[in-house]
Amino acid sequence: MSSKYPTLAIWLAEEPQLMLPILNEVALELVGEVYPDYKIFFPDIYVRVKELPVEDKLRDLRQVHLNALIKIRGVVTKRTGVFPELKHEYYRCAGCNDVKGPFFNDHNDETKNFLGRCIVCQRDSKSFFLETSMSVYRNYQKWTIQETPGSVPPGRVPRQKEIIILNDLVDSARPGDEVEITGIFINRFDYGANVKHGFPVFTTIIEANNVKRFGDE
């Protein structure tokens, strides 16, 4: 992509949270033109980015990398089970039964805080409850990866970072595997860290877009 469509490559590297959903939608439309029945069995297609030209080290990730597409390398040390996570959320008003949605879960903010008042009965957001029968879920898993032994400076402790694994990427690697992660470097509000330090602190995490496991070649 970087050689044929450099503008798209720059947009993808700088604003992956905006570009990737568009690429997924276009890919699904193109596949639907060739295989019209594809959407019946598989409602989504996920575009995976590989061979990013720049590789960053875990200990070198800084504020300039936030919300950008990055590539790191490490060893998986911990892996959780697979859980269902809300992807598209619908909320129903307890007063008038009106439904709001869908809202897309972006891992950053709780949707219920931004529902506002019900447009029918004017009740506040506290009257809304999650409509589980209409909401859409996706597979969710969390990994912890650590710097590879050869990349740690002498006398330093290996650093770790949590990785969010979604959809078809779950269980694509096991603890002990060396992997290359291409994903989005995002931040989350950490209430515990704010209480501890006394000033606003955000934790950082990587939302994986592609996983390459070494040893499979």
Beta strand count = 8
Beta percentage is 25-35%
Mean pLDDT, to the nearest integer, reads: 85
Strand order of the largest sheet: 1-5-6-8-7
Low-pLDDT stretches: none
Query: Given the helix and strand composition, which structural class is it?
Result: alpha+beta
Terminal-residue CA separation: 23 Å
Provide the gyration radius in Å: 20 Å
- In sequence order, what are the helices and strands, one letter per element? HHHEEEEEEEHE
Helix content range: 10-25%
Characterize the overall form: globular
Q: Please summarize the sheet with the most strands.
A: 5 strands, mixed, barrel
Helical stretch count? Answer: 4
3D structure, described in words:
Strand 2 and strand 3 (99-104) form a beta hairpin. This protein has 4 helices and 8 strands. The chain has 217 residues and is of the alpha+beta class. The protein has a 5-stranded mixed barrel with strand order 1-5-6-8-7. The protein has helices spanning 6-14, 16-34, 38-41, 191-197, and strands at residues 69-79, 83-93, 99-104, 128-130, 136-146, 160-166, 178-189, 202-213.
Outline of this structure?
The protein is about 20% helix and about 35% strand. With about 220 residues, it is α+β, with helices and mostly antiparallel strands. The mean pLDDT is about 85.
What are its keywords?
single chain, 217 residues, alpha+beta, five-stranded mixed β-barrel
Layout: helices, strands, pairs:
Blueprint: H1 6-14, H2 16-34, H3 38-41, E1 69-79, E2 83-93, E3 99-104, E4 128-130, E5 136-146, E6 160-166, E7 178-189, H4 191-197, E8 202-213
Parallel strand pairs: 6-8
Antiparallel strand pairs: 1-5, 1-7, 2-3, 2-4, 2-5, 5-6, 7-8
Helix pairs in contact: 1-2
